[in-house]
Design goal:
Shape: globular
Structural class: mainly alpha
Largest sheet: none
Number of domains: 1
Distance between the termini: 66 Å
Number of helices: 18
Strand content: under 5%
Radius of gyration: 22 Å
Number of strands: 0
Order of helices and strands: HHHHHHHHHHHHHHHHHH
Length: 376
């Protein structure tokens, strides 16, 4: 196969990845938009001021109901922090909003299988608890006070006080949902484009032996319990750095995780890679802008240790019951175009997106009409 054929195959594979995930994106972002519009945030923040189990639980639930865009997650976390959320709850929100959101779960189910989805949920909860313990043990009071002073005081001015019952039954409320839906896509389209393109080209151009060398895979089929501890440990340790090197956020790294799984990377390595979306340099830089470099690196360190421990715990917990997940998805299968359930789900997604975008157009047209009438 010459270079042009490989290039064309890479483009087709990337488009196939996106086509098979499109309905999940539309559905996930529609649900996320509705939750963000109809759930008053200020009432939740009032109960997140302490680093106790209640605060952490609320932060995790709130994060799971929010946007999966990594940049939006960090912005929302800063807003919570400034409104009085405890630092531990803030970090818990960061983890949950990029690892436990609906659209990410659907994507993992489509690309890796239900076993990985179950592992993702269980591991996400474990990772939040581990990070909370680590922060409580190492709690740098002076650093966090500096971070609070460093945060931008002008952010997070959402209209949190409203009657959700009135909003959910109003036309204006659903127009807000449409507007939020559009904003979600504006925030994530670059991340999705880059992630799926990189995954498609890596699937075509990078041979399996590269991943087998990097992750110490032998190429032989071994169960999770049979893998040497040093290999599992190496996979868990190196996976966050591989994720950071891709510069891809939470939604874009799932297709690449599928490529790694097909290349023989261990379960611990795959989970460590998926959990490391907030470790990419641009997101660490965003945290540095919000809280200062010392706090940003402290957060990254807490995340790295939590990710490695969680990946190891998941691997050996699932190995103990002989249930270590192995992706049953073939790259050709999840990048194929066909007249199947995906085709019809995507048609429904186009209709849903059209309705939500149409609501925004009507809202903008109405505002323009009012302005013109005022000028006249």
């Amino acid at each position: 196969m010459n270079i042009l054929d490989q290039y064309a195959n890479g483009v087709i594979t990337a488009l196939g990845f996106f086509w098979n995930a499109l309905w999940a994106f539309v559905l996930g972002y529609a649900i996320s938009a509705a939750i963000q519009v109809f759930v008053p945030k200020s009432r939740l923040v009032q109960h997140m001021g302490n680093g106790n189990f209640t605060s952490i639980s609320l932060a995790g639930i709130f994060g799971a109901l929010s946007s999966s865009c990594s940049f939006a997650a960090l912005s929302a976390a800063r807003s919570l922090f400034q409104k009085g959320a405890h630092f531990i709850a803030t970090v818990a929100f960061m983890f949950a909003s990029t690892n436990l959101v609906i659209e990410l779960g659907v994507l993992i189910f489509l690309f890796l299988g239900w076993q990985f989805l179950v592992a993702e949920i269980i591991g996400g909860i474990i990772m939040i608890l581990i990070s909370a313990i680590l922060i409580r043990i190492t709690y740098p009071s002076r650093l966090i006070r500096t971070a609070r002073d460093h945060a931008d005081e002008t952010s997070g001015a959402d209209d949190d006080e409203f009657d959700w019952k009135k909003r959910v039954t109003s036309v204006e409320g659903w127009q807000k949902v449409g507007n939020r839906f559009v904003m979600e896509w504006q925030m994530v389209w670059r991340e999705i484009l880059i992630g799926f393109t990189v995954a498609g080209f890596i699937a075509v151009f990078v041979p399996d032996h590269v991943w087998q060398t990097l992750f110490l895979a032998t190429g032989e089929t071994q169960s999770g319990a049979e893998l040497p501890f040093l290999r599992v440990l190496e996979n868990a340790l190196i996976a966050p750095f591989v994720a950071a090197a891709t510069f891809i956020g939470s939604m874009g790294n799932i297709p690449l995780a599928t490529v790694l799984s097909a290349g023989g990377v261990s379960f611990a390595g795959i989970m460590g890679f998926i959990y490391s979306d907030l470790m990419v340099p641009p997101l660490v830089k965003v945290n540095a802008n919000y809280y200062g470099w010392k706090t940003a690196l402290y957060i990254a360190g807490i995340m790295y240790v939590s990710i490695v421990i969680t990946a190891l715990m998941l691997h050996y917990a699932f190995a103990a019951i002989d249930q270590v997940p192995e992706s049953s998805r073939d790259i050709a299968e999840i990048s194929a175009f066909a007249i199947n359930y995906t085709f019809f789900l995507n048609l429904a997604a186009f209709v849903l997106a059209g309705v939500l975008v149409g609501a925004v157009v009507v809202m903008l047209a109405g505002g323009l009409f009012v302005q013109l009438a005022t000028l006249a």
